[in-house]
Amino acid sequence: MVNKPMSQSHIKILVEIEFIQERSNIEENQYFFAYTVTIKNQGSHTIQLISRHWIINNAHNEKFEVKGDGVVGEQPIIQPGAEFTYTSGTEINTPSGNMKGSYHMVTKEGLEFDAKISEFELNMPRTLH
User: Fold this and answer.
1) Whole-angstrom Cα distance, residue 60 to residue 88?
2) Considering the entire predicted model, what is its pTM?
3) What values do phi and psi take at 10, rounded to 5?
4) Secondary structure string (H, E, C) spanning 59-102
5) How would you class 118 by CB atoms within 10 Å of its CB: exposed for 0-12, middle for 13-18, buried for 19 or more?
């Protein structure tokens, strides 16, 4: 039996977004969003998340990029069939926008690949008065 190298198809990434009113200042155009990411390893190789790359757009299509090692101070190792969940946040200067990105991963065998994070919306909920 031959093990296939890891690829994007072996990783499932789920994102949940929440607008955080307490950390936002609407009068100052500061809108804070928390996002919880779950990374599921559906492959047969142990993987490690090495770095992240986020592209954040506000409603004016102004782009901000965030790159760095790991996530929330960790470079998690995710066994086959396991998952890793973390929560982080971002602030934009419009009530809506979007994010997308990728995680740079490496297998225990040293194979490197990027796991894409599909675009998701950042939207402050509208309230009726």
Assistant:
1) 23
2) 0.89
3) -90, -5
4) CCCCEEEEEEECECCECCEECCCCEEEEEEEEEECCCEEEEEEE
5) exposed
The residue length of the chain stands at 129
Query: How many angstroms separate the CA atoms of 43 and 58, rounded?
Result: 35
Instruction: Tell me the pLDDT band of 74, cut-offs 50, 70 and 90.
Output: very high
Location of structure tokens 């995680």 = 103
Looking at residue 6, its pLDDT comes to 53
Residue spans per domain, the chain: 10-120
Q: Which CATH superfamily is domain 10-120 in?
A: ApaG domain (2.60.40.1470)
Q: How far is CA 98 from CA 52, 57, 78, in A?
A: 16, 5, 27
